[in-house]
Amino acid sequence: MSEKCRIEKDSLGEVQVPIAAWYGAQTQRAIGNFPISGRRPDVDFVKAHIKIKRAAAVANNQPGWLADEQANAIVDACDKILAGEYLDQFVVDRFQAGAGTSHNMNSNEVIANIANVALGGEKGVYDRVNPNDHVNMGQSTNDTIPTAIRLAALAKLPRLVSSILAMADEYERIGHAEQDTVKSGRTHLQDAVPTTIGREFCAYAWTLRRAAINLENCRDPLCEIGLGGSAAGTGLNTSPDYSERAAETLSELCGENIRPAHDIAAQMQSMHDVMRLSSAIRDVTLELTRISNDMRLLASGPRTGLGEIMLPPVQPGSSIMPGKVNPVMFEMLNQVCYQVLGQDAAIGFMTQGGQLELNVMMPAMGSALFDAMDWLTNAVNAATEKNLKGIKIDRERCKAFLHASVGLATLLNTEIGYAAAAEVAKESEKSGRPVRDIVEERGLMSGDAFDAIVLKAARDGRIE
User: Fold this and answer.
1) What is the dihedral of CA 167, 173, 174, 180, to 10 degrees?
2) How far apart are CA 8 and CA 56, in angstroms?
3) Burial of 73 (0-12, 13-18, 19+ CB in 10 A)
């Protein structure tokens, strides 16, 4: 180590720690042990864990277990971190020892050093505020890390839901504006009965709103925490009523109804509520994948595809074909969705990967969940802002496809019967002539009357 260092000690012996670092010996060991992904911890997760440390100091101070000097110094240090200072001091790789002990000690050491310096001491000298004895009082990695994962997910959830609802709002806006834009429906990717752009896009909006509701329904179970379970869910070495007092402070810090789980041991063994959230994210991701595919199909062309919608050009689409524009935002959203589905699969494996009193897959589980939430939030926002808000509808293209569709013959079922309508359909398919022209030529009804039936069927699905 070429930079200037100070010497710290832990239970394994001496460790050289950079003088500038606010972390200590155990964090330094973790840096050397886990050079895996090169990714530092998620910021929401870091702040969630710091909120737990702050709440613990308050809870331990109330019965007199933690002296005022130490409690106040810890609270002040936590407040500085929550305000955005020292975030570069959380340095342990996302893939680390199963329970997350390295990250827990990273928090303990940074807080202790900030507190000690504020009290007139030096970094690395823990005579006034000790990382284990004071910052970690009444806690274990085993209850703070799963609690921090839940709190971080609660912090991210409103942003994800907001992005989904914003996309739904945009689909609904377009749907209302195009409620009379009749087009050919397609089932099995084949011509079908008429529908409207409005019906198609409003259906996307409704689906996304339902998915957002399912995401919101995951919020309350995440508020039930196992903090206070200590190492094995027994509450060993915790102060009286610690769980309740800490949860009360966390409720204030997080703006959520944080409360001790009915069985705190279960909330340390099981990550069911995290898996439930991941499943809800998977569900909306599957819908977003489908909708993105539809956008790419509807925008295909511009001459040899469907071309019923036109996506705003955001960048050149080819390094060799001049003038080519691709549906890049929805391609991006598709790719993110596939990555998110992979994260959900990993979370599923890790949910069942715990043993007995503890799930030891938590750091990677949390990382996968946080990535899924952040990536999807950002991707949906980008697709909405860069593409969806600028979509234009080619009404003439929709009309041309509509009148070329053999599916329009279905509208004649109640007028001339299925068999006769099938004959019209066969002639249209054989000759390539529109059903409207054949109907009018045979004297079955006027062109205007047929148009009225088409519009009514497309808008409300009923034929009178």
Assistant:
1) 150
2) 26
3) buried
Q: Which of 111, 137, 163 is the last residue of a domain?
A: 137
Tell me if 61 sits within 8 A of 119, measured CB to CB.
no
- Both 241 and 111 in a single domain? no
Strand partners, 8: 15
| Measured CA distances, 205 to 298, 376, 379 (Å) | 17, 17, 17
**pLDDT tens for each residue of 136-151:** 999 999 999 999 999 9
Residue 187 within a domain: no
Q: Which residue has the tokens 């100091």?
A: 57
> Which residue is associated with the tokens 């990993």?
346
Q: Assign residue 18 the CATH number of its domain.
A: 1.10.275.10
Give 242-268 pLDDT, tens digit per residue: 999 999 999 999 999 999 999 999 998
**Contact (Cβ atoms closer than 8 angstroms) between residue 138 and residue 227:** no
Q: 256 phi and psi, to 5 degrees?
A: -130, 165
pLDDT tens digits for 60-80?
A: 999 999 999 999 999 999 999
- pLDDT of amino acid 463: 39
Q: How far apart are CA 364 and CA 349, in angstroms?
A: 11
pLDDT digits (tens, 9 = 90+) for 339-398: 999 999 999 999 998 888 888 999 999 999 999 999 999 999 999 999 999 999 999 999
pLDDT, residue 322, reads 64
* Residues annotated as catalytic (active site), given as ranges: 318
For residue 271, give its domain range: 144-176+197-392
Cα 210 from chain centroid (whole Å): 15
Of the chain, the percentage scoring pLDDT greater than 90 comes to 77
Domain count, the chain: 3
